[in-house]
Design goal:
globular, 5 helices, 73% helix, single chain, 75 residues, mainly alpha
Amino acid sequence: MDALTDQDRAVLDLERDWWATQGGKESAIVDRIGVSPVRYYQRLNRLAETEAALAYDPVTVNRLRRLRTKGRADG
């Protein structure tokens, strides 16, 4: 995954700003991205591994990476 698509950027944007949306995160996923929450999280997890996503939104991607590392340490 070299370059981000518009949908990739929309996923990262939503992950960064979801707390400010009305109706909750799952509603925002369906309304803004047009996919199920399961597909959203699958895509988000793949994106978090890419350098393109890191370049686009380093704060969000680094937060996701820290959470993943913490989850592995706790599990």
